[in-house]
Give the backbone structure.
Amino acid sequence: MIKIQNFINGRYMDPVGGEHLDNYEPAKGRVYSTIPRSGAEDVKLAADAAKAAFPEWSSMRLEKRSKILYRLSELIDQNLDRLAEAESRDNGKPLWLAKEVDIPRARDNFRFFATAIQHFASESHRTSDTIINYTTRKPIGVAGCISPWNLPLYLFSWKVAPALAAGNTVVAKPSEVTPMTAYLLGELCNEAGMPAGVFNIVHGLGAEVGNAMVEHPDIPMISFTGGTVTGATIARTAAPMFKKLSLELGGKNPNIIFDDCDFDKAIATSLNSSFANQGQICLCGSRMYIQRGIYERFRDEFVRRVSEFKVGDPMDENNRMGALVSQPHFEKVKSYIQLAQEEGGRILTGGEEVKLSGEFANGWFLRPTVIEGLHEQCRTNQEEIFGPVVTLQPFDTEEEAIALANSTTYGLAATVWTENVRRAHRVADQLKSGIVWVNCWLVRDLRTPFGGVKSSGVGREGGWEALRFFTEPKNICIKFD
Ligand code: NDP
């Protein structure tokens, strides 16, 4: 049994209260490690260490700070296989996916921000011949970073890397459901030469550790990725303390397929955008709107290919999908499949558990599920399911497609398939969404702003946006006549 520990002030340690939680392996449905059930005292230890480390880290020569973060990215690369196996086991995602996407992206996050900070500049405004303004951007102090379970190391590093690059020190909490790769990152930080206290990782429950971080007076900024309801709780706690907040929340993303699309590409990418990572990516397109001219042909081909998906042991590279992350989440997704039927939906494929034998007999496997016949206002089409479930709906006109796409309270990402360039621009412009992909999905350039509108969040991550969030601007105005 692996015993996960907190990483505070450069050392692994047990939680002050001595309590631990069970950590499950989703493919087997059984406990394989324990994690600290930390509390406010552990957060205090971490915040104290981070506060003490801040003066040295924030004033360190930029090249040196950058070099340490770059070295960390190299160490992630050198440990790619080990980290990918840990991620797959902890999350239930296919090993091939962790190797191709999760861990390389964690490496890239550190590498990107290690170099980005060397090019980050602030503005200067010449007001008149004798007046000049210049803006400084300084690190703020201790950053609180809270991340979810779906892309564990990928999203954890997406926050931590810019926070550290900008010169802040960090107290971070990975999801209690997937703590393993964040745990392993601690030793790599020490190996990379990161000074003690710069980066602290506290494990435990959101309502306990996460809440203690949000309440802590020495953590003036919180970067959070997770569910919309949790985001609202965090905003309520942080608002009276005037903390800086970045909230990357849920999505219910439309995938709009016009009948002038490249059919084969739209099918192939939609299979991925619907079911990658068992549909547990905030950017997955869960509402598919297909223009009537190709609706039946598209539906039949899509369903045929989904029904051929292999689901099972995440370590077997022949399996396209692994297990859902936890039993509560598995039950939640199944309850939405039940709800969809009650709301009048017809299941075209999937809808049932995958029952495996042997050591996988208790794993949380679900067949990818495609549903049609639902109205856009029903709960299945309005609420985030965050699993391998998509709905299909036909539409006639461009206006109708836009209205359907914009019909939820969410606005994270949207995908549009069309070969008509004017339509591509027109539709992209009118979608109420932080991100629009045309004829592609999940093509990520780390320099671009990342985040959502409406209930999908507040603020943007990525590139300069992240470095701006993790620094405080100060304008200095000089009159020199
Ligand atoms: P949650 O909101 O349940 O949890 C996210 C993180 O917040 C976890 O570390 C959790 O800890 C912690 N947390 C929970 N309650 C509190 C609290 N009161 N105060 C502080 N922290 C708290 O989300 P999930 O982990 O279930 O992740 C899935 C959600 O994340 C989906 O809604 C998905 O759309 C969203 N997401 C958004 C993305 C985006 O970029 N917009 C990207 C990826 C996911 P614990 O696990 O211990 O409860």
